[in-house]
């Protein structure tokens, strides 16, 4: 009986808050060539594109602009692939999980793995 009581007390409830653990590893950021991810024109003053609307801010900040949160831009129209974007220096990045897979390629993966009909 005593053993059973001990087991009961050790079955701890895991709080949901741990899913948003602030110490979880950040994504690894890989700088991308904007020509590969968005349609535009290469001009003398830089790469000119249509505006891509960011859908949200990331926890990650730009490695070049201290404290500037990166913005998530999804694949849509002239945007050829989802990426994160710094509004200050206009650099574009891919975000990788610790295992090296892209956190931003979810849409294309689900399309590629759609069951055959
Ligand atoms: Zn920046």
Characterise this structure.
The chain has 117 residues and is α+β, with helices and mostly antiparallel strands. The chain is 17% helix and 27% strand. It contains 3 helices and 7 strands, in the order H-E-H-E-E-E-E-E-E-H. The strands form 2 sheets. It has a 5-stranded antiparallel sheet with strand order 1-7-6-5-4. It has a two-stranded antiparallel ribbon with strand order 2-3. The longest helix is centred in the N-terminal third of the chain and has 9 residues, at 2-10. Zinc ion binds at residues 62, 64-65, 68, 86, 88-89, 91.
Features:
117 residues, two-stranded antiparallel ribbon, 17% helix, binds zinc ion
Oligomer: single chain
Q: H/E order of the elements?
A: HEHEEEEEEH
**Biggest sheet layout:** 5 strands, antiparallel
Helix content: 10-25%
Radius of gyration in whole Å, from Cα?
Answer: 21 Å
Number of strands: 7
Query: How many H/I helices?
Result: 3
Low-confidence stretches: 107-114
